[in-house]
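Hi everyone, sorry if this is the wrong subforum. Our group has a chain we'd like a structural model of before ordering constructs, and none of us has done structure prediction before. Sequence below.
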Amino acid sequence: MPGTATATFNAFNNEISAAAAASAAAANRAGDNIEDQIRVAIAHLRGLEILGYSSEQARNRAESRSAEVVRVLSEFAASILAGERKIATGSSNTEKAFRYLTSFLMSIASRTGTRDRLQIFTTNYDRIIEAGAEVAGLHLLDRFVGSLSPIFRSSRLETDMHYNPPGIRGEPRYLEGVAKITKLHGSLDWVEASGTIRRVGLPYGAEDTRPYLNAPGLKGQPPSNS
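Answer:
Right subforum, don't worry. Here is the predicted structure as tokens:
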């Protein structure tokens, strides 16, 4: 899978790199990464928007910065999808690797009904955990609600799945084969639209994200939301 190595911007690359390095140092990290760069580039774009387009040069500069953010984000997303494709189809050991993954997930997800749910936290954008859970038949609760265009509900912290054993009333138990997952840095199939975060139906290892964003409510979102 690809890492979060720095990208190269066609404009203001040195300034973005310097600001990203300063941001990483402030967080006591040894070096900057693409997340630091994107954060700086979006802040720069927002600054240009606040200053307004008083001249054609200012407008061109803002449009150039917007296009650069879109390009870098698109290339980063494409590299993650390429990594997913390699995992799914790249070698004869794929099936063996998924057996290891599903065995690991189920070993930590299986617990008695009196224990709290397994909570999985990951900083990864890729969906290898989700793919493994799907193969294993493990249902993941990620606080998205809905089927057609699931929307993130931060208030759904205690949402869970229970059942009532036959002959027992008032004592619901945790449904087996369920775990909770939190993706701290977001996910490849998340998009911000109209003030909400939605999950799109992006197939695992798809060739491109764009066809799946070409839908009402998602099409034409600003680059910071991609």
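For your construct planning: The beta strands are 119-122, 139-141, 144-145, 151-152, 162-163, 173-174, 178-183, 190-193, 196-199. The first strand starts at residue 119 and ends at 122.
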